[in-house]
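Researcher: I'd like a structural prediction for the single chain below. Treat it as a standalone chain; there are no partners to consider.
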Amino acid sequence: MASFRRTKSRSFMVFIVLSVILYYICVKGIFSTISSRRDDITSNPTKVIVAASLKDDDTSWIRKELSDWEAKIYVVDSPEAKYTVPLNKGRESMVYLTYIIDHYDSLPDVIVFIHSQRYQWHNDDPLYDNVPIIRSLRLPFVTKTGYAPLRCTWVPGCPSELHPLNPTDEGRETRKLTERAYAAAFSELLPDIPVPEAVGAPCSSQIAVSRETVWRRPKSSYERMQKWLIETELSDKISGRVMEYTWHIIMQMPTVYCPPAGQCYCMTFGLCDLKCTAARWVEENTDGRSQDGTSE
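Model: Treating it as a single chain, here is the predicted structure.
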């Protein structure tokens, strides 16, 4: 009987030792792989620039100046283009949605959505140049927070551009039309979220997002948004403007997302210790242009 107990005890000890060994081989190995993947995302993330363009646009600057990025350049007015859209409507938003839908299962770590032109009035750079903006983008910040506008200046868009539940006749015609249309559109775009009282974010639909943030909504949600964009009776301009002030909400940010400019510059681009003000000169020096660069 004593021999049986000793044998049983030895068997139990062997079981414990084997369990510990298996734990370190399997469980630790799994967590090591996950940790290694996270470190790789932080230090060397996969990344793509998705640009919305017209066939006459010069987009050569993207591959020339940002050659370390993969580039997907969509041509909205050319059905024969390698990357195109089902319908040229909604400004850049149709491109963004099409890319997400077509690449949903194979997204890179970081996606930067931009307009095709290198120099644009809303680019947050002293020379309005998109190249230094993208070169300065802190990818670890994007992968950590999941979303970053490429513009930190508040005007236009912040602190609140639209009041969907209480539209007013203030401001330019495009803003007024967008505000009137926003509540009904929002209910179709994001039916699981109540229509917000106020909506605000830096203009102008140039953003960086992480794959994980995109994946927080199912592919069917983006397909529903694209279907709305195709079928809505709203014009190209107004439907695009509705989407412009919805992207931050789609990407899980608050309905009013206006980080202090100094904080935004530091966290997003590494430009710290800046003396930032409201920068209302932007609105005063755009020559009456709307956020898409055209005259009202």
